[in-house]
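Input.
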Amino acid sequence: MKRKLLTTALIGAAAIVALPMTAALASSDATPQPTIITLTQTPCQFLESEAMDQGFKSTKKADCEAINAKTAEQRLKDAPVMKLKAGKYIFRVTNKNVPYGLGFYLRGAGIVGRVSLPKVSGGGLSLGVTKDYAIDLKPGEYVYSCPLNTTPDYTLIVEG
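Output.
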């Protein structure tokens, strides 16, 4: 199945929100405000990244490792590819119903991408917690995942 390319106007069910500008920021020398990308983690997946809830159950990381060993390859083939313009973003990540601590890791794809492109990561996403991860994305191919919830590496393409 051919992978679907998405734009900033539509990323599966991901919410993309431009932060409001205040009157003080409306001047010609204003710094552009970051765009917010909302992502929701459930067991073994990001909901928006697969455009559906797979309904997986997990009480520990090993559960997701077993699930993804069987299903991740096909799920990634069917998953929409997030496509954004270069610029400042905040990835707002929520732990919706995973009963253990999660994180978020966005980095360049491949060895060269990991060295040459910006990255952002962090943890502390316990059940019900939402955290923001700010990054200035440069053109290139990225992947993002949660190593603690063991999700697949979802693709993000950034264009100039």
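Confidence is low (pLDDT under 50) at residues 1-13, 15-27.
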